[in-house]
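Support case: glyoxylic acid complex. Customer-provided input:
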Amino acid sequence: MTPRPVLLYHPKDAQAYAQLVRAPKGAIRLEVCATPEAAASHIREAEILYAWKFPAELLARASRLRWIQAMGAGVERFLVPELPARVTVTRATGMFGAWMAEYALGWCAWVTQRMETFRRAQRERRWEPLDPEPLHGRTLAVIGLGDIGRAIGRAGAGVGMRVIGVSRSGRRVGGVEAVYRPAGLRRALGQADFAVIVLPLTEDTRGLIGEAELRAMKPSAWLLNIGRGPAIGEPALLRALREGWIAGAVLDVFDAEPLPPEHPLWAMPNVVITPHVAGPSVPAEIAPVFNDNLRRYLAGRRLRFVANRSRGY
Ligand code: GLV
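Agent response - structure generated as follows:
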């Protein structure tokens, strides 16, 4: 049996991922790359690509590639026209819900527990007995009810929030009081005290949240975007934040990342910016998914978490 060439690519953690790859002796030949230049010299012979933020232009040269395991949940960077049709793309699934639920609930509580206000008062040695607001009884709208969105919904329900959501199918989800189809997006947003956007980036979701959707929200509502920046139309979002259509936004993802220093969002008092950290890819959490799929691949069995190319995620 000739070893299957595997290209592992990660700009920062390539070695950490490499150390966790498990395969039968002699079954694979692993090339570990941390730069596009290094990846460019191995992509032609690779049969398997295990990667994070892989340069899309290199995919056109991947003449022997059969399978890509993404180290993240979003696969839009791989589902590009350059990707040969024979290549199967699999997502990393199962590990992000817990992280992103903590992020979402944490920042919701940052609003309701007035954390910023109390920290400021503390710095000024000022006793400021201002009651917190509740999360319980408030409405959490989760836009995108994949495994991550469902975990966020469970966390919200766990603190007594009323949880509603939007999904492509509109199918019922346990613990979610009402699930709307995309046509009901504005109705869902209109009820939200907190709306968490956790959508993959596809042709259908690009710009899905625009002026009409933001205007449908309550002026007291907070928007959290932890999926992909382009799901929200940025000009409309800037207006919504400046003109008080919504109370504020917690943003982890942006049209351009890193967010350029001159971007107006940085200076807005009702905006929290975090640098795409809501659902971190941790090598030890991603590795079991790859190793399991690798075993399946080598045995000619079906892979898990296969992305649907026509659906876009
Ligand atoms: C991160 O955004 C990911 O897609 O996992």
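The first strand starts at residue 4 and ends at 9.

Case will auto-close in a few days if no follow-up is received.
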